[in-house]
Write a structure and sequence with these properties.
The chain is of the alpha/beta class. The protein has one domain (7-160): 3-Layer(aba) Sandwich (Collagenase (Catalytic Domain)). The chain is 44% helix and 18% strand. The radius of gyration is 16 Å and the shape is globular. The termini are far apart.
Amino acid sequence: MQKPGKLKVSIKNNQNAVKIPSGIRMLIRRCCHAVLISEGFAQNAEVSVSFVSNAEIRTLNKTYRQKDAPTDVLSFPLTSEDGTVEINAETGFVLLGDIVISIETAVKQANIYGHSLSREIGFLTVHSMLHLLGYDHEKSPLDERIMREKEEAVLEKLGISRELTYTNSGSN
């Protein structure tokens, strides 16, 4: 197995509707790193993660996906379709892209699915990292299944798989 490269994760909180729980930043870094290890990504890499409000993610969703509604997470990969990557001229790290999470929607979904906010943010981070690496669950049912299996495998390695994180409250 290849030795993983270094990973720089920049995390910004661009909203004030929800207080970001302690430990979430470390969880995000662990999730990003775990995806790169599971995918055999050995280069040094950078990723940016931002927490935004529902209003902000709705604007981004409308602008970039023509969907006028809030969503849970958006991924903005910097790798082009032909596999060309952008490199940070100062560090030499591969710029994977940006992950934007609506913390308001993450809280709502954690309650709906009956699991912890940590599990929800972990899932959204892993999901987006796979998008940044080129996976797309919207291409076909097979692509969706492949992506879901990869997500659950990474989450299980991190100890936050579906089976381990359901709370007694909420419905499912």
